[in-house]
Amino acid sequence: MIRHIVLFTWTETATAEQKAAVTAELRKLPDLIPQLRSYTVGADAGINQGNHEYAVVADFDDTDDYLVYRDHPDHQKVIADYIRPILASRAAVQLSI
Amino acid sequence: MIRHIVLFTWTETATAEQKAAVTAELRKLPDLIPQLRSYTVGADAGINQGNHEYAVVADFDDTDDYLVYRDHPDHQKVIADYIRPILASRAAVQLSI
After folding, report:
1. Which residue range forms the structural domain that includes residue B39?
2. Smaller CB count within 10 Å for chain B: N or C?
3. Origin, by domain of life (chains A, B) (predicted)?
């Protein structure tokens, strides 16, 4: 299994509406990209200081399925239209488990 | 459920032995901290450039259980003795799901 993990921070000018739209748009992807076996997205819970602001955890059967998701036009459109305009920093790892 | 996610990069001087010891020590924690419901740790799979180098994904029933793990002496000892000596940067999020 491949577990894809990405954490974001947002720009200081990002609005609550823009942040909420990221979640709304990402949550459409499991219906569009059947390779997604599990998909957890959302804002940081606010338990600790100094955290990143947003997380995506996506599980796939294998690397090929992850690459379908990574390069899928519907995913790329969410990145281009909703994430990149408010993105300050990004940290990612893919785990083979 | 609380999903705790943390990504690390290591210092340039970190050795393969030091990196492997992080995994070996973290994998002892589920036997020591019963609040851990699911625990996935490991090095980046090398699929993409520019990634962080290591990921931990830990699931808990609730915030209280996560805090037991966060502050547990056995966990803190792994951080102090194995992670912090080779830590270059850290990104974390807790998701409430």
Report:
1. 2-96
2. C
3. Bacteria
Closest CA to B57 of A55, A62, A67, A52: A55
Beta bridge partners of A59: A3, A38
ipTM: 0.95
Asked if B55's CB is within 8 angstroms of A93's CB, the reply is yes
Residue-wise pLDDT for A25-62, tens only, equals 999 999 999 999 999 999 999 999 999 999 999 999 99
CA distance A20 to chain B (A): 15
Domain count, chain B: 1
Which of B2, B5, B37 is the best mutation test for A, with the most CBs of A within 10 A? B5
**pLDDT tens digit sequence for B59-94:** 999 999 999 999 999 999 999 999 999 999 999 999
Residue A68 Cα, gap to closest chain B Cα (Å) = 13
**Is residue A72 packed enough to be buried (19+ CB in 10 Å), middle (13-18) or exposed (0-12)?**
middle
Contacts of B3 in chain A (CB under 8 A): 40, 55, 57
Distance from B67 to chain A by nearest Cα, in Å? Answer: 9
Q: Give B45's contacts (C-beta < 8 A, 6+ positions apart).
A: A2, A63, A93, A94, A95, A96
